Every structure is written in structure tokens, then in C-alpha cells.
Amino acid sequence: MASSSSDGIPLLVILTDISGQEITKGTWHGHCKAHELFQAAYKSKPGFLCKLLHGKEELSPQRDLASLCQSVVRLTVVWLRGDGQDKLVATHHSRAFAAIKSDGSVVTWGDADEGGDSSQVEHRLQEGVVQVVGNGLAFAAVRSDGSVVTWGDSDKGGDSSHVEHRLQEDVVQVVGNETVFAAVRSDGSVITWGDADYGGDSSHVEHRLQEDVVQVVGNAWAFAAVRSDGSVVTWGDDDEGGDSSIVEHRLQEGVVQVVGNGAAFAAVKSDGSVIAWGNADFGGDTSRVEHRLQEGVVQVVGNGSAFAAVKSDGSVITWGDADAGGNSSRYEHRLQEGIIGVVS
PANTHER family attached here (predicted)? Predict the structure, then answer.
């Protein structure tokens, strides 16, 4: 494995699975980010996603390796895909299903034009599939060799022929919005296809999507990518989160999580503050609660049109569509302390 050639304190890092079996090892330097270790894990098992644990602590991709304070570091890789169980994939508005079987094959049914008919790519869905993503009108499957297979509505991501040469290997994750797919490769680059207006065309930010992307999140009409330096890149429908220029100065570093809902995004920074952008009615405007989002936030969750943030003191702050949970004043007395998590 290639080692970092930059100056700094060398660390021997050993990645093992949960059984203790060694996956890979190599030498990195203290100023490197944990993102590089995620990439090493992905290369050992293309098409799978993972978490990295240092003891019981989950590492963020933006974590500096020097902070681990050891010359020999043992990390546990917890794989999040390919667990050997059949999976059923569909979105809430989909008219088709795709089922992943334990042998890595895929079975589809439902509306033929929206992904229920996969006969044209059936020969590539017989084995080795580790992830299938649906956007409501099409599906994309990631195979164990890192290649991607698509089918369904050709204008909404079912046809990936114009980027097919870039989807032949090394894809570790595919994310969809309503009409587009985005694929993250093991080198941290991003490929997009589908409806150009809603993120299928990422050419205007392509120079920032060539490397070092560690997370891509979609809302219904746009995408946000977090890079290993903690900066954020956005594209898609400008009014629904694709244009983050109004908060761009706050998205240059320190972002550790981005969450999307129907038409907005919220980013959590390493200092516990939250930045939001996109459709104001969906939570893109936090001005009503901004004073409570300056520090201490440990989790943000989105539903269709609102957000909820959990703070380290166990309190919850909400914003966005009042009728969808953006106004929690009726329950505020019960949300002041003791909350350990929120789901939607």
C-alpha cells in the first residue's frame, strides 16, 4: 500500500474486521485525515461502505490521525453493505421494487418504465450486487467489482451510458435524489447522471469533485458533497439547496455532517454549530432559532420539510415547515433535556 510521503510523525495503522482478521495495513503521517483510511478499506472491498472504530469510538473521516496519539493504531472496520441478507429497495413514491438476494442477484418488478423491468441489464444482475439505490423512477446497482448498473426511466438516471466509462470500477457508494444519481469512487471523485437541472450535470463544480469527497447527500432536487478538508460543494436546483453561496463562507472547513430533507440542507460543524440553506419553507432559513444553533449540536435529522437538532445538553431545536414538525413549541417543555436521539 502506498504511504503518505508528507513530513510528519509516521503511524502504523492496521485495519481489521470485527473478527480480528487483518484487512490491510500501512504507514500514514499524523497530519493525514481518517478519510485516507476509509479509502484504504474501500479498496479492499469495492462496493461496500463501512464505519471505522477506534476502540468504541467511531472515527469521522475528517479526524486528524495525530489525535489518536499512538504510533501503532488498530482500527476495526464495520462493513455496512453485503451482510448476506436479502434486501428490498423502493422509495415512498416508487412504482417498482428491486430485491437483492443473498447470492448478490437482483429481482425487479412493478412499473416497467420506472425500474420494474431490468431485462436489458439482467445479465449484469445475476451476482455480485452489494447495493441498490432507487430514486422513484430508476435504480442503480453497485457490484462487488465497483461497477454500476442502471435501469428504469432513461431521463431520470436509468441511462448512465454517457458516464459508463467512469462507472466500470472503484465505485463505493451511489446516492440518489428524485431524478438523479451520484456515485462516489474510492479515489474520492464523484460522477453524476440523470436530470441535468437537478444535479445530473455537475460540470460547474466538477473541479471540486475530482478527489477527496468523503460524503454525498441528496435532498429531493440537489446534492451536497463533504470533502476531506471539511468543505462542502453543492449543485442541482439552486432554489432547493444546489446554490449554497449565501452561506459559502461558513462551509469552507469544519463540516462533519450534512443532512438533506425535501428541499434544503443542514450542515453540522465540528464546533457544534449548524448552517442551513435551500428552500426557506423547508428549513433552509434558521433565523428563528439561529441563536440556539451556535454550539453544542451533536445530531441533525431531517424529514420531508423540517429539521430537528439534538444538542449535547439533551435538548432539541426544530425549524422548517411548522406543520411537519418545524414548530415544536407545543412539546417544548418535554424537549428541554434528556433527549438522546431523534428519528423521522
Answer: BTK-BINDING PROTEIN-RELATED
Count other C-beta atoms under 10 Å from residue 317's C-beta: 23
Cα–Cα nearest to 308, from 328, 294, 337: 328
Domains of the chain: 10-79 (3.10.20.90), 81-201 (2.130.10.30), 205-344 (2.130.10.30)
Give CA–CA dist 168/263, Å, rounded: 31
Strand order of the β-sheet with 316-320 is: 297-302, 306-311, 316-320
105 and 84 in contact (C-beta within 8 Å)?
no
Positive or negative torsion for Cα 278, 281, 282, 283: positive
Please give the model's pTM, rounded to 2 decimal places: 0.77
**For the sheet containing 87-89, what is the strand order?**
87-89, 96-100, 106-110
Give yes or no for residue 88 having a pLDDT over 70: no
d(CA 36, CA 161): 30
Q: How far apart, in whole angstroms, are the C-alpha atoms of residue 41 and residue 158?
A: 29
CB atoms within 10 A of CB 3: 12
